[in-house]
Amino acid sequence: MSTVTLSNIAKAYPNGYQAVHKLNLDIQDGEMVVLVGPSGCGKSTLLRMIAGLEEITSGELTIDGSIVNHLEPGERDIAMVFQNYALYPHMTIYNNMAYGLRNRKTPKAEIHRLVTEAAEMLELSELLERKPKELSGGQKQRVAMGRAIVREPKVFLFDEPLSNLDAKLRVQMRLQIKKLQRRLGTTSIYVTHDQVEAMTLADKLVVLNKGNVEQVGRPIEIYDRPASVFVATFIGSPSMNIFDANIISQGVKLGNLLYKFNTQYLKIGGVKLGIRPEHLQVTKTNPWFEVEVELIEALGADLLVYCRTTGEHSQNLVVRVDGHSQFKLGDVIGLTTKLEHLHLFDATTSKRIHIENNVQPITEAIYA
Amino acid sequence: MSSPVIFKNRYLPYALIAPQLLITIVFFILPAGQAIFQSAQLEDAFGLSREFVGLENFINLFNDSYYLESFFTTLKFSVSVAVLALVCALILSAFAEHIVRGATFYRTFLIWPYAVAPVVAGSLWLFLFDPSIGVVTDMLEWFGINWNPTLNGDHAMWMVIITSTWKQISYNFLFFLAALQSVPKSLHEAAAIDGSGPIKRFITISFPLISPTSFFLLVINFVYAFFDTFAVIHAMTQGGPGNSTSTLVYKVYNDGFIGLDLGSSAAQSVILMVLVALLTVFQFKYVEKKVAY
Asked: Where do transmembrane segments lie in this chain (chain B) (predicted)?
């Protein structure tokens, strides 16, 4: 049960590469925080700094109110689950889980109780006398979790723990991790590049890009109100469509097609306009703009329609529609959307321009 | 899984293994056969006459206190060399892993002794250990040790042990270094998080994981100490003083080519051959199986 605070944490490598820039983050007791970002965004480095496997160049890391910057990994009272499991191959499963407890001079009977309990919780009781190489990927992953659980640490760290598993197992393990974390109530930090894992596991989602925090928030907040173009395109699949558009006094103009709304509080000029594929509706009456179908991907439940706007300066986009919709390549279809589904970003800084609270929407879109 | 290759020409496979076979026959089977033949003969020193004596050469050997003593000398020598060379190399390689600056320099210099010819190594250390001009002798005098390997058998023994060990450390170092580097880094990290310090990690994680390499090196080092140290001993002590550094291999040479007792020398070679065969069997039986995980 504990809190973790990162204040102005930075990591620079001797060759001058700045992996993490001054980063601040508060993690509450019992919270599941997911760090997500593309490879090279510094999420693993950050986790390894919290674990004590990488030195912290500057800033302060506190666990439960005390600074742990200079403590050895073993003294920080944390446990980590590695991507490749990192089970000790020469030890039995029992000894793998007991290793950390023995190092802490836990009494033998206590070790036995803790390991047996964790094994039961993770359905590993039958496997305790086996060696890691005799286990399947999913079982190894459970042992790695067991090794973390038995120590009853203040914080769990997960470093992409599911990326070595096949898709079906990944979903199972994801649910298991979620249940386990709820049940134990241990503060957890989870690193992943998989946005589905990120969305489903997180109490608090932290989107990282190039060593900076792009946005922190509940997953649904981040989905609904992405703070930048980067977050908008990173969270959500397929990615949000981003267009070059213009704000004029009557509304927003895509090419020469106007979507009318009250823009009196917005700056006139070029913006980036974002619309999620699932928020575009196909309409025959009064569409905002027309597109030509270029490619169709059928996912069963949904159909992803890749299209291109007609007219000059045509732009690519994806529309997500019901799986049984009938389209042919080359069809020209009309699209529209609701005002609340428009995301505006600054053309130069790519940061979100907030429109939700300060405009009076004109509910009907007009094809001008 | 590799499937057996089928040759179209039935003579081709024989032609392909012929070179290796020829080498084995010329340099092993023939001399070994000759040794076995010779070991049952008694020949005069001039090679003018010989007679068949059956196992008499062997019986004489096992009644010869010098031969039994040589067995003991060899054992003392081999165990010392193997243990010292393995322990030193293991320690050096454990440190080599953590060196950040000058790692290449450090490794190159550690591997260098392996490239020094045994006779050269022998002469080098002979100078260092020389009773009158040796640097090591001088240093030992500070500790009140009157070092003289030409008179003191124990001193002579230490001298050949140290020289042979020095030459073998490089080889062991290379293997240990490779083995240690193949232990995944994440295991060390996991152990560190599990509250294990660097020394404990080495003992509980690295060491068990490199045990196949250690076992292989143990056998190799014994073979080295048994058979490959002839040149060092020959260059430094010629088996002396007395018979204090006369190992089994050195005695084969000494009895055969200096003493010209060819029958006894041959019998000793045959015994050594059996020993090598046993070591090899041991190696195959255990090393292959002894993979701990």
From this structure: 12-37, 77-96, 108-129, 156-180, 201-227, 266-287
The tokens for A220 are 């649904």
pLDDT in tens, B151-188: 888 999 999 999 999 999 999 999 999 999 899 999 99
Residue B39 lies in a domain: no
Q: What angle do CA B147, B149, B151 make, to 5 degrees?
A: 100
Residues B92/B93/B96/B98 CA torsion (nearest 10 deg)? -110
How many Cβ contacts (< 8 angstroms) between chains A and B?
A: 64
Across B18-35, average pLDDT: 93
Name the residue in chain B with its Cα closest to that of A131: B293
Nearest-CA residue of chain B relative to A149? Answer: B194
Q: What is the pLDDT of residues A223-277, one digit of tens each?
A: 999 999 999 999 988 899 999 888 888 888 887 788 887 777 788 888 999 999 9
Mark yes or no for CB contact B184/A133 under 8 Å: no
In sequence order, the 6+-apart residues with CB closer than 8 A to the CB of B30 are: none
**Structurally, how many domains does chain B consist of?**
1
Residue B79: inside a domain: yes
Residues of A within 8 A of B209 (CB-CB) are 89-90
Does residue B151 lie within any of the structural domains?
yes
- Integer CA distances (angstroms), A84 to A133, A137, A163, B168, B283, in order: 13, 9, 9, 37, 33
Note whether residue B216 is domain-resident. yes
Residue of B101, B194, B214 to mutate, testing the A interface (most A Cβ within 10 Å of its Cβ): B194
CA atoms of A368 and A353, how far apart (whole Å): 24
Tell me the chain A residues in contact with residue B208 when contact means C-beta distances shorter than 8 Å: 90
Instruction: Determine the pLDDT at residue A368.
Output: 41
C-beta of residue A70 within 8 angstroms of C-beta of residue A48: no
Q: What is the CATH number of the domain that holds B162?
A: 1.10.3720.10
Quick one: closest CA in B to A51, which residue? Answer: B193
Q: Do B195 and A89 touch (CB under 8 A)?
A: no
Q: Report the pLDDT value the prediction gives residue A361, as an integer from 0 to 100.
A: 45
The span from the CA of A130 to the CA of A143, in Å, is 11
Q: What is the ipTM of this complex?
A: 0.82
Q: Is it the case that residue B83 has pLDDT exceeding 80?
A: yes
Is the CB of residue A50 less than 8 Å from the CB of residue A78? yes
Cβ A72–B200 below 8 Å, yes or no? Answer: no
Range of the domain at B91: 65-290
